[in-house]
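Sequence, please.
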């Protein structure tokens, strides 16, 4: 009962926090156990919250043993079927981690037809690539089936998470639910050679997850992928705009990742030349405070007068709503970021901290604002609900208005302050990159 109630609250919080959560493969969901969900882990607490919100059944979790230090918190974790896993950092120096207890608890939970969520990378980092998959998931699954004569029909369901920006408020998430892996398929191999059975199943899990997320070898490649994706969707694939079609855009990013890896392995000269030019292009844009969209044919065809007039009318008409939204939402909007900054936690915890704080700050301040208004005007329940709705809508409009103000500033710079020779230089660089892309896309 408590789990279901909290899940509904989390669904509401996720709805407001993320601009879009795109789910693919819903037909692959399994709502009965025994079942193990496996997922990549780029965003600490947000990853389990998103996955739990998508499944009808209650989910048990594996978590680092280090969080079980507080007695009261431990009781809460046990209530929600959180099973500790011991790592080297969770035990005294010189000792080896012993997870027999963890395996036993996992087996007991699966015996009850439960569903376990495991992040086989073992840790969470703010990066795109899929890290090394630990063998723990495969060992839990195969040992459980072995104890039950491979008759329990245990399945492993891979879930790939891909964030447009995993630490940014109002970012987008792609969730791809893959086809279930039947553990009993590995019975013969496991019986013949336990180690080989475990490593083979682990490799299958890795392949299933890696198919649906971008993959890079280091931070430099990751940065190149991000700006390449922005360039490609701007000039080659306008339908892949992240805000207009996040599903298509995030899928496109995964494909671009594979294409760049292929190019790096098969035509190093072209890869290096393109990387250099793309970085130079975005560095020049950054110097001018512009975005790639200013150098599309579509933007160049726009009438300058109509563009400026459109912004003027937009700002004039929305100004009262913007001011109301700014007044009613600024403090609760700012507070989550301030709390995270004060916490001095690692960047991976930014998103969950902001969402959890926002879950309390917005209702609290909305309540205070309604109470304050109530001291001057008579307010009933329906009036309060209407005010909450007005706070929410005006808050979104205030964010949009502020974004448009920043965009208008860039428009003014492009039209009136950027030198023509710099525009021509960037257009030439754009065309050189497009020529490289055309060569790369030519069948070989």
């Amino acid at each position: 009962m408590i789990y279901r109630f909290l899940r509904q609250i989390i669904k509401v919080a996720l709805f407001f926090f993320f601009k879009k959560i795109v789910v693919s493969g819903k037909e692959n969901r399994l709502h009965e156990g025994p079942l193990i969900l496996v997922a990549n882990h780029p965003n600490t607490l947000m990853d389990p919250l998103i996955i739990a919100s998508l499944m009808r059944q209650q989910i048990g979790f594996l978590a680092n043993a280090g969080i079980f230090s507080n007695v009261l918190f431990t009781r809460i974790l046990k209530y929600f079927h959180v099973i500790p896993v011991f790592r080297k950092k969770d035990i005294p120096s010189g000792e080896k981690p012993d997870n027999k207890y963890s395996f036993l608890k996992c087996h007991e939970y699966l015996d009850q037809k439960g569903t376990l969520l495991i992040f086989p990378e073992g840790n969470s980092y703010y990066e795109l690539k899929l890290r090394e998959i630990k063998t723990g998931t495969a060992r839990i699954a195969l040992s459980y089936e072995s104890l039950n004569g491979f008759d329990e029909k245990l399945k492993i369901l891979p879930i790939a998470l891909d964030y447009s920006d995993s630490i940014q408020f109002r970012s987008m998430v792609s969730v791809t639910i893959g086809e279930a892996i039947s553990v009993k398929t590995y019975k013969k191999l496991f019986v013949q050679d336990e180690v080989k059975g475990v490593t083979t199943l682990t490799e299958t899990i890795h392949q299933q997850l890696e198919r649906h997320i971008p993959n890079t070898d280091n931070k430099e490649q990751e940065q190149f992928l991000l700006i390449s994706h922005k360039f490609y969707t701007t000039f080659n694939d306008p339908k892949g705009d992240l805000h207009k079609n996040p599903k298509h855009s995030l899928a496109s990013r995964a494909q671009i990742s594979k294409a760049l890896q292929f190019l790096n392995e098969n035509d190093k000269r072209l890869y290096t030349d393109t990387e250099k030019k793309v970085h130079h292009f975005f560095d020049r844009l950054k110097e001018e405070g512009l975005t790639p969209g200013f150098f599309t044919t579509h933007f160049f065809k726009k009438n300058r007068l109509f563009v400026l007039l459109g912004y003027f009318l937009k700002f004039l008409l929305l100004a009262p709503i913007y001011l109301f939204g700014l007044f009613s939402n600024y403090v609760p909007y700012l507070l989550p970021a301030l709390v995270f900054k004060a916490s001095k936690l690692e960047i991976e915890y930014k998103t969950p901290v902001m969402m959890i704080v926002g879950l309390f700050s917005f209702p609290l301040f909305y309540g205070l604002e309604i109470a304050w208004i109530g001291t001057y005007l008579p307010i009933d329940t329906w009036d309060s609900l209407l005010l909450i709705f007005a706070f929410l809508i005006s808050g979104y409009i205030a964010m949009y208005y502020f974004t448009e103000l920043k965009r208008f500033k860039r428009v003014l710079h492009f039209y009136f302050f950027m030198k023509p020779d710099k525009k021509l230089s960037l257009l030439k660089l754009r065309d050189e990159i497009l020529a490289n892309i055309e060569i790369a896309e030519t069948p070989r």
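Strands lie at 20-24, 35-39, 59-64, 82-85, 115-118, 155-163, 172-177, 181-182.
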